Amino acid sequence: MTRPDRRDAGQIRALHCVLGQLSRADGSAQFAAGDSSVLCGVYGPVDVRVYDEKLDRAHIEVKLRPATGLPNTKDKWTESVIRSTFEREILCHLHPRTLVQINVQVRQDDGAVEAAAINAATLALVDAGIPLRTMVAAATCAVLPGGAIVVDPTLEEAAGAQSVHTFAFGGDTAGGPLHVDSRGDFAMDEYNACYDICATTAERVLAFMRSAVEGKIAKEALLVGAS
Amino acid sequence: MEVDTETQVMDVTARIVTPGSAITSDPGFIRGHGTFGEGPTIYSSVAGVIERINKLVSVRSLKQRYGGEIGDIVVGRITEVAAKRWRVDVNSRQDGVLLLSSINLPGGIQRRKSESDELQMRTFFSEGDLVFAEVQSYFADGALSLHTRSIQYGKLRNGTFVAVFPQLVPRSRTHFHTLPCGVDVVLGVNGYIWISKHVSAAKVEANAEHIYSDKNEPISDEERESIARVANCVQLLNRLYVKITETSIIFAYEESLGHAPKDLLALDVAAELAHSVTGRLRQQS
């Protein structure tokens, strides 16, 4: 079985990220896996509307806009996924009565965009200096007709797949997933296989994100130290 | 108090952490900002450099919103007029609060606040006004309480506003400076900076009745050009991460005289000027 872009079944697309591109946001990050690219800007902790304020924790708000068209129900679902995942990982109790707003803009959609959005949100939150319990990395697997399992499916592969599974893990992948999304018809052994592959992939994505963040800090620590 | 001298060492790569990294499980350490504990282990909650002072372990992230400490001099913008208080945007995690009881009433004499003062709060500060204040205390939820109980604080006029990274404005004894070119600069520790036409202290005191006036003094074209030049100098210092102090602004102003004020916004000119400013600052120290 050859994939349209001639990758192996277990091979992910090239990862690329840029931190701190947006000058007016507290934190921003662009995350791309192959041709799927997502830009995330984070504001916070900032002042919150009285309607949303929580007396003992920060209020998390997520806004996702697709690459083309107006946000639809699927995008609202992805917003709620990102919000519930990060509500647990952000140390909200440190900033009561504030708002953390996560704005996600899908720049290009070539499959596995939910995972890219979660990864971009992690990097943007880290860039903004918002305290997190752990960094969150997400990965996607698709089960093709015939049972073959491929990781990081393109839009074409996902459209023709029997089922698509997205998993998000924290730093300790053995502790269980932070988010699971499975769509389509699948058997439990297919699910388990996807789980294992995505856990390994998430660890690699985490390592990539960590080295990107550490590289930026090392560069900027020298710059600030010198002035 | 012993300060860890390792922070001066250029090689910081050994001590850079990301959220979720374990720092230590040694029970002898106390955890500070940027960390959280789970069981016996201290983990980092932000991406940054570990700092250790005696037993206190903390992680300092590069980017942080201005936190605010008591005694800080800040510049803020009024966002809302509420009952007996104003809410002020001070570039922090929450809007600051300026209570009606914390401002000076016009006329310079001390008088009791009346009901009519409460009903006419917009005659003092209204939405969009810029105020120069000091942090008096915190509210229970961490919001800053400001006061302008001194003749030098109050409403800002006759100038222009520049926002910079708060980390670039060091705390010092005075935050209100008069530059040799005849321009007054207010350096808010929260990163908000006001650059205005110079008004002498005597004139300010003589105008005690009009401290809340919204009317600017007449400003000549030369004064406007100086103000614009200083504003662009502050912008370029901010762009190239140079600390913004009276000295660095004066150096930048002097170095910039060879260019038109608008040329200072071009990256190549800005980089060249920032380089000469850092050179002069290093020479001076």
Report the portion of residues of chain A in β strands. 25-35%
Estimated share of beta-strand residues of chain B: 25-35%
The SS-based structural class of chain B is alpha+beta
CATH fold name of the largest domain in chain B, please? OB fold (Dihydrolipoamide Acetyltransferase, E2P)
Per the principal axes of the C-alpha atoms, what is the gross shape of chain B? flat
The helix/strand class of chain A is: alpha+beta
Helix and strand element order of chain B? EEEEEEEEEEHEEEEEEEHHHH
From the spread of the alpha carbons, the general shape of chain A counts as globular
**Named CATH topology of chain A:** Ribosomal Protein S5, domain 2
Kindly state the mean pLDDT of chain B as a whole number?
87
Tell me the count of domains of chain B: 3
Uncertain stretches of 5 or more adjacent residues of chain B: 1-13
List the helices and strands and how they pair.
The complex is a heterodimer of chains A (227) and B (285).
Chain A: E1 15-19, E2 27-33, E3 36-47, E4 59-65, H1 73-89, E5 98-108, H2 113-128, E6 137-143, E7 149-151, H3 155-159, E8 163-169, E9 177-184, H4 188-226
Parallel strand pairs in A: 4-5
Antiparallel strand pairs in A: 1-2, 2-3, 3-5, 6-7, 6-8, 8-9
Chain B: E1 16-17, E2 22-24, E3 30-31, E4 35-38, E5 41-44, E6 48-53, E7 56-61, E8 73-82, E9 85-89, E10 96-99, H1 115-119, E11 130-138, E12 144-147, E13 154-155, E14 159-163, E15 176-179, E16 183-187, E17 192-197, H2 201-206, H3 221-239, H4 246-256, H5 267-284
Parallel strand pairs in B: 3-7, 10-12
Antiparallel strand pairs in B: 1-6, 2-5, 4-5, 6-7, 8-9, 8-11, 9-10, 11-12, 11-13, 14-17, 15-16, 16-17
Helix pairs in contact in B: 3-4, 3-5, 4-5
Protein name (chain B): Exosome complex component rrp4
Subcellular location (chain B): Nucleus
Family (chain B): Belongs to the RRP4 family.
Describe the structure in your own words.
- The complex is a heterodimer of chains A (227) and B (285).
- Chain A has a single domain, classed as 2-Layer Sandwich (Ribosomal Protein S5, domain 2).
- Chain A has helices spanning 73-89, 113-128, 155-159, 188-226; strands spanning 15-19, 27-33, 36-47, 59-65, 98-108, 137-143, 149-151, 163-169, 177-184.
- Chain A is α+β, with helices and mostly antiparallel strands and 227 residues long.
- Chain A has a 5-stranded mixed sheet with strand order 1-2-3-5-4. In chain A, strands 7-6-8-9 form a 4-stranded antiparallel sheet, with helices on both faces.
- Chain B is α+β, with helices and mostly antiparallel strands and 285 residues long.
- In chain B, helix 3 packs across helix 4 and helix 3 (221-239) packs across helix 5 (267-284).
- The longest helix of chain B has 19 residues, at 221-239.
- Chain B folds into 3 domains: 5-61, RNA polymerase II/Efflux pump adaptor protein, barrel-sandwich hybrid domain (OB fold (Dihydrolipoamide Acetyltransferase, E2P), Beta Barrel), CATH 2.40.50; 73-210, OB fold (Dihydrolipoamide Acetyltransferase, E2P) (Beta Barrel), CATH 2.40.50; 221-284.
- Chain B starts with 15 loop residues before the first strand and ends with a helix.
- Helices cover 21% and strands 28% of the residues of chain B.
- Chain B has a 5-stranded mixed barrel. In chain B, strands 1-6-7-3 form a 4-stranded mixed sheet, with no helix packed on it.
- Chain B is built from 5 helices and 17 strands.
